[in-house]
Amino acid sequence: MEYAGAKVEVAARKIYIIEDEQDISELIRFNLSLEGFNVETFGTGEAGLKAIEEAQPDLLILDIMLPGMSGLEICRRLKESSKTKEIPVIMVSARGEESDVVKGLELGADDYVTKPFSPKVLHARVEAVLRRGTDAKSATDSVKIDKLEINVGRVEVRVEGQLIALTQSEFRILHFLAQRPGWVYTRVQIVEAIRGENYAVTDRTIDFQMVGLRKKMGSMGHLIETVRGVGYRFKDIQ
Ligand code: CA
Prior knowledge:
Helix content is 39%, strand content 22%. The protein is an alpha/beta fold.
């Protein structure tokens, strides 16, 4: 970290990578090391899990397709244990593995990147996921992003200062997504998060709700992004 031209020393954050393709894990390791991370790589889930038992990383980059134990199985085990469930996980998937990405997110993974990805993109995701860990605890009563304002106490949403009329489900969906910009949610996760006793929302109706919600949001409708084959996210505009 540079500050007024002087190097400020901060404790290096530790990242583990579980990835069987050595050129990819080496590329990630090299680039994240340049960013000041302390990076260790493992070629199998068994080796990675053993290392995590011994010393927990600040974040895990996890390939889905691995020989032996799969990335999804590793994710499931980590999220099941109270000792390791808080470790943020970024999955690495190949194109066409969206259904595995959906499963991974539902198991508790935080984000994913699709191969091939640039080191710059991965670094941005790593920083965003690490930031979320500290942001998530400070949920506020009102959210203001660009020209969109969500007032939770009043259950009101304004776009460019004008009140817009949302159904209760639409309001819940919007508030849920806006709390964590950039975070991808699957349809099932959205349904589970917003479903109250009186809401007949299923994952099939989510797409329909999103169309209506975006339309009502007018010029701010683009803040809700479709993540093809996976789900939805609120645009991260910082
Ligand atoms: Ca692989």
